[in-house]
Every structure is written in C-alpha cells, then in structure tokens.
C-alpha cells in the first residue's frame, strides 16, 4: 500500500503551491460519481471454480462492495464460449472467472485462449509476492509477470504435414510485441516500479524472439527513468529459483510467460495465493494468477478444501481496476491478516482448514 501512498502525498502537497509542476496522477483514485454498484460478469467454471468464486461472492456481500454479479455457466468441454457470455463481458467490461478445464489433445481448443482472443485481452498480469507469515524459501519476492496473451505458441496454427509429422507455427508480430512492451513499461511507471526485464530466446529463435526483443528495446528508450534488462529464458528460470529478489517487472512472449509465472508463483507460496488478470484496452478478466492445475481435483472438491486466497486477491485487483480502492485495500488487508495469523489455512499452505473456514476468517477480519 505504501507504494501508492507516497505519490498521492506528493500530489496533495504540490497543490498548495501556485507554481506547482503538473505531474501524472497516481494509478488508483476514487471513482468520481455516486458510487453506483457496477455489474460484473461471473464465470464460476469447472471443478473447484464454483467453490472459490462462491467464496468471493460471500466476502463481497459481507463488505458491501459496490458490485453485483451476472452469473453464467461455462465449462471447458464446450466447443466455444457462449455468445451471451461474451455479450455480457462486452457490456460490463469486467469479468471474474474460476478455472476452466482444457481437454488434453483431441483437437478441442481452450476456452481460456478463445476468451482472450475474442476480447483481445492481450496482457496477462500475475502478481507473485511474499505474504507475511507464509514461510517460503525466499521471503522478499515481489514480481509482476506481464505476458503477451494473444499470439506466440498459443496462436493455434497447427496441421499435420504428412502422417506422423505435425507443424505448429509460432507467430510473433511487431504490433503485439510493441503493445505488450508498452503495457509493461507503463505499468512499471504508474506503479513506481524500477526495472523491466524482457525474457526471450533470441539466441536461438533469432527472427521471432529477435522481433520481440527489438520491440522491447525501442519502447524502453521512451522510459529513461526505468532500468531495462534482458535475460534468456533458461537462465531466467535458474535465476528465479536461486535469487528471485532481483526481478521486478518481467515482460515475456506467450509461452515463456506461462512458465515464468508458475515458477514465480511456486517460489512465493503456490498457485493458491497468487492473483492475476487478463487485460485489454476495453475489457478485463480476473482469475487465479498461475495455472489452476487443481481445478479438476476430485479430492479437493470432495473435501471442500480449495484455497480461495488467490481469487480473493484477484477480486481485490478487480475492485481496484473498477476504481474502488478502499474496498480493495480492506479485502487485501483482511486476507493478509488471516495468512499472518496462520490459524486458518488450507492443505496447500500446510493447514487443515476448509474453504469455508478460510472465508469466514477473512470476513471476520474485515475492518
């Protein structure tokens, strides 16, 4: 919270001077107007999805958050995202989503990827940070992984050349590379971050990753106050597990970002506590930050021990995106209090609590 407080204080002090220099405002400000509740599209998803989205609904109701949900049933085995769901997100501009199971092989496309492409959610943002009270090997992790979300290896351009030979095309464009680089540097600038690191494999994929790297370098010249680094993806993985404290904001092509975000999440406490979102110029979909590999776990579902923390923190990101920062702060503070206290934790964090017990503890911790 201190990162946002300092620039706000400077801005307030500068207003008292008639000769003040106009500066860019802080990232999150109270939304002007009457505070009318905002509609949010809700996709509970598969497996544990309804359990953790239900947790968010309970907490939002308890804190009287100025949002209400339009809920739709969507499952990963559907051929396409229903049109009424897309229309709802386009109307509301914001969506909260549980995990959707993606079938392995068989030619069935991922609804997660479909959703990103349909709404042009070109930036995936995952916040991997150390939570006070949660013991991990590294205790000073605070990494933002910003991943290009619409092309690269996820372009979906595959075909069988001859029986037994499959060609999968990796597409990198100047437009998308510049767009994600601009997003990363602007995010760093607006959130008082000091360094942006581009992750690549341009030593091997000289044209594709070379184009991505070239775009990052060009954008970096516009942000002289932000330090710019580059790192090859395999070295990046090693550096992440050995010294994650060195990274601040990371910008990556599509596939690398998926791997880096999950690695960073594991270092900082696991996928169950890492928030994230997928953002475009017009729409935003908030969900668990790192891959929800436990979405379809029957054991977790039967025992009702899914960790709701990641989606609760993602919903706080959503509240801040909607410019309700006071509610976002309340929710984040309550979650951090429960983690620090250590009394209520699900199995993935070394505890024995159920999802509902964690939710009740968060609600009780709301100030």
UniProtKB/TrEMBL annotation:
Signal peptide: none annotated. Keywords: Magnesium, Manganese, Metal-binding, Mitochondrion, NAD, Oxidoreductase, Transit peptide, Tricarboxylic acid cycle. Residues 39-362 form the Isopropylmalate dehydrogenase-like domain. It is found in: Mitochondrion. The keyword Metal-binding applies. Gene3D superfamilies: Isopropylmalate Dehydrogenase (3.40.718.10). The keyword Nucleus does not apply. SMART domains: Iso_dh (SM01329). InterPro entries: Isocitrate_DH_NAD (IPR004434), IsoPropMal-DH-like_dom (IPR024084). SUPFAM superfamilies: Isocitrate/Isopropylmalate dehydrogenase-like. GO terms for cellular component: mitochondrion. One of its GO terms (biological process) is isocitrate metabolic process. It holds the Pfam family Iso_dh. NCBIfam families: mito_nad_idh (TIGR00175). Performs an essential role in the oxidative function of the citric acid cycle. This is Isopropylmalate dehydrogenase-like domain-containing protein.
């Amino acid at each position: 919270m201190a990162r946002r407080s300092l620039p706000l204080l400077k801005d307030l002090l500068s207003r008292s001077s008639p000769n003040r220099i106009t500066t860019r405002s802080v990232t999150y400000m109270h939304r002007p107007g009457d505070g009318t509740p905002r509609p949010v599209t809700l996709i509970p998803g598969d497996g544990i999805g309804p359990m953790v989205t239900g947790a968010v609904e309970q907490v939002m109701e308890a804190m009287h958050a100025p949002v209400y949900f339009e809920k739709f049933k969507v499952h990963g085995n559907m051929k396409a995202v229903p049109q009424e769901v897309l229309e709802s997100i386009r109307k509301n501009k914001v969506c909260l989503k549980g995990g959707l199971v993606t079938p392995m092989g068989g030619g069935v496309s991922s609804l997660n990827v479909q959703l990103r492409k349909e709404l042009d959610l070109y930036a995936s943002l995952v916040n991997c940070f150390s939570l006070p009270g949660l013991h991990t090997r590294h205790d000073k992790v605070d990494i933002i992984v910003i991943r290009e979300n619409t092309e690269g290896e996820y372009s979906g351009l595959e075909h069988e050349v001859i029986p037994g030979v499959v060609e999968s095309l990796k597409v990198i464009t100047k437009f998308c590379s510049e767009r994600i680089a601009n997003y990363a540097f602007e995010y760093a600038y607006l959130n008082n971050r000091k360094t942006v690191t581009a992750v690549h494999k341009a030593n091997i994929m000289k044209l594709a990753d070379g184009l991505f790297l070239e775009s990052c370098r060009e954008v970096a010249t516009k942000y002289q106050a932000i330090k710019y680094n580059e790192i090859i993806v395999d070295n990046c993985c090693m550096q992440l597990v050995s010294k994650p404290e060195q990274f601040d904001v990371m910008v990556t092509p599509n596939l690398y970002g998926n791997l880096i975000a999950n690695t960073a999440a594991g270092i900082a406490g696991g996928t169950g506590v890492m928030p994230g979102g997928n953002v475009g110029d017009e729409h935003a979909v908030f969900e668990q930050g790192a891959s929800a590999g436990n979405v379809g776990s029957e054991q977790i579902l039967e025992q009702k021990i899914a960790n709701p923390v990641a989606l609760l923190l993602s919903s706080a990101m959503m509240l801040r995106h909607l410019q309700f920062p006071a509610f976002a702060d309340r929710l984040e503070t309550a979650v951090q209090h429960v983690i620090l206290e250590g009394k209520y934790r699900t199995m993935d964090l070394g505890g024995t609590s159920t999802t509902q017990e964690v939710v009740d503890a968060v609600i009780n911790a709301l100030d």
